Amino acid sequence: MQAEFWFDSWERGGFHTSFHRRDIHPFVETHTPGERFVGSRVLVPLCGKTNDMLYYRQFARHVIGVELVEKAILQFFEDNGLDYVQNGSRFESDRLTILCADFMDLTPEDVGPIDLVYDRAALVAMPLEMRLNYIRAVDRLTPVGAQQLLNTIEYDPVLPSAPFSIAPEEVAAYYADAYDVDHLEAVVIPQHGMVRRWGLRFLIEHGFMLKKRQNIRPELLDPHLHMAVGDMVRARNRRLLELVEGAGLWPKGCEGAHPGVA
Ligand SMILES: C[S@@+](CC[C@H](N)C(=O)[O-])C[C@H]1O[C@@H](n2cnc3c(N)ncnc32)[C@H](O)[C@@H]1O
Questions:
Q1: In the predicted model, is pLDDT for residue 107 greater than 90?
Q2: Which of 18, 24, 68 maximizes ligand 1 atoms within 8 Å of its Cβ, making it the mutation to test the pocket?
Q3: What keywords is this UniProt entry annotated with (predicted)?
Q4: Which of 23, 92, 111, 214 is deepest in the core (most CB within 10 A)?
């Protein structure tokens, strides 16, 4: 989505920022336990005002969030009663910095060394061409050995706007050549707010742990390649729908909003 879309979303609030969750995302606590990441430097691209940054700050050496819209950053500090000092585009608090910047423009010097990237509602927030730019930026900003906890949602029928449906095959197509990809979670969520709002036939939230082995080869981030993967996934979705329904995982008439609509 273009920058204006996000400025407008934060200006309007309410439904327009319903991606914000009040809780700590369960995948975060399960798959990035404090004891394994003590002393890490954690990068949170497209951070919004996520409380997950507070979870990481408890044990990380430093958490670096990146957010385009200043209003979201100010709300983060205000909502959490945290003091901060502003140095240009850097909002600095104890062991936490939020950069007010376009993530795609950052250099490794801007963020410093990174051990863990946490992506929730970032990769899925962008249409294909922008998404590939985002992946280039993540790859440029992280050293070999860095890990990434990545959440995506997969649903059908697909929508032409954020959050985009991203299946495990697409994650593999983007990252598997250069990263180890461990598919940790696939949670069917019939009560997710998007299901009711858009009449979705299924929605699955996926969690992955990636570990970087090498830089991504530029030719693998070609939009044509990924459009073909998207077609393949849509064919697979029809089979998945039959499986989900057949296994009774999708109760008929199920309603109710998910606490954090992605
Ligand atoms: C869907 S929200 C997700 C926020 C957060 N990750 C969460 O889980 O609540 C995407 C966020 O990315 C921000 N954003 C969009 N494009 C960006 C960019 N190019 N650079 C930095 N932030 C961006 C938006 O303002 C918005 O706050």
A1: yes
A2: 68
A3: Cytoplasm, Methyltransferase, S-adenosyl-L-methionine, Transferase
A4: 111
